[in-house]
Amino acid sequence: MGKKSRKKVAAKTLSDSAIKGKLVEFIIATMHDAEEASIQRNVFLPAQGSTTNRTREIDVLLTKPVEGNPTYVVFECKNYREVIDVPKIDEFFGKLHDIGIPTQQGIFVSVNGFTPGALERAQKVGITPLILTGLTTDRLAAAVQKAFQSVIHLLADVISMAVEAKTFDGTRSAGEMLFFYNAEGQLCGSVLDLIWKQWHEGNLPSTIGKHEIKLEVPDDWRLKLDGALEHITSLSATIQVLGLMITVVGQVSQHALINPLAKTIDRYRAQATFDTSSRTYPILRFESEAEVTQFMQNRPEPLKLANRLRLPRIRLNPLYWPPSKRVSRILSAIVRAHQAGELPDFQWSDLAGIEGDDLRTIWESLWTGHPMVRAMRQAESNEERSTSEGTEPSK
Q1: Are 207 and 299 part of one and the same domain?
Q2: Which among 137, 160, 201, 246 would be 20 to 30 A from 75, CA to CA?
Q3: Domain that holds residue 118
Q4: CA–CA separation, 147 vs 307, rounded Å?
Q5: Longest dimension (CA), the chain
Q6: Which regions of the chain are under pLDDT 50?
Q7: For the chain, first and last CA: distance in Å?
Q8: Three-state secondary structure call for residue 231
Q9: Is-cis flag, bond preceding 322, omega within 30?
Q10: Co-location of 167 and 107 in the same domain
């Protein structure tokens, strides 16, 4: 091999070695980065008592205040193919002694571990040995695995409702049994409002599947039957909590610092990146927890991340409830047309399409004129006012 070829090989080897060392230093610095501490890499600290301004290089230096005084933690980072033996521990011990930092504040990080003798020596002199995981086999980069992220939006679908009153004979219309009035005969809410309030406040189950629920009716709510107001004796409903899943595939790198003496994980860090450039995502529908579990188990990605989020409204097909400002205008126009005889054969199915075929409309602003929405916002306003004034909110 010629001299030029040997020089190229040496240059490449040196470059790879430098990359490996810097990589471990970067990972260690990132894993220990915190607001209350400062992290520096490749710091030169003066040797104690040196008359020649001699310095020693520190791979990673962590500085944090303790009772107003700076405390230092020194990391020695080695990305070697071989395990660390006693001489390397002694070199680090000498460096700490040279710069005047106690060995108990020295941490030796190795990628491929330590010999039993090195562990014994480290323990004797007070140095903490740690093993860094999460690199590729050539130790030139962080190992990257495929990751799967999902967000499950929970939607409460109202399947059925049951209202009982003393004079109910089973021949009443749905409109008569769904809406309630106060003592003055003014509309104050509906069965759907009571279900939504419980859902909004987190009082209904979040488990995907069917649930039978009992509802408490406010004392001043009445049914209007044949023009007369009557108390409700019982109110219940069946809801189906649906899981509407949006999924994104990405990549993740994971690193752990393992203490081989204590056999514990000293620190863990995962960093994931997902492609969220798409403006639309397909939605997967689940009707039971078993379906979700089976789907997740069948995913090939080694790392699976999942979040759950209650949607802000409930649904009585084909509408979300309470209605948004936009939908309330449409419904009002339909009611007026029906009352005027322009829609004599109006069917509930005629409302299909108002909400659209995706989840975006469920996030529209609620119609503030809706009785239940207005009452809840007034209660929230009263509570905020009472809190700011330092008084107890009225019951």
Answers
A1: yes
A2: 137
A3: 13-133
A4: 14
A5: 107
A6: 1, 3-14, 395
A7: 91
A8: coil
A9: yes
A10: no
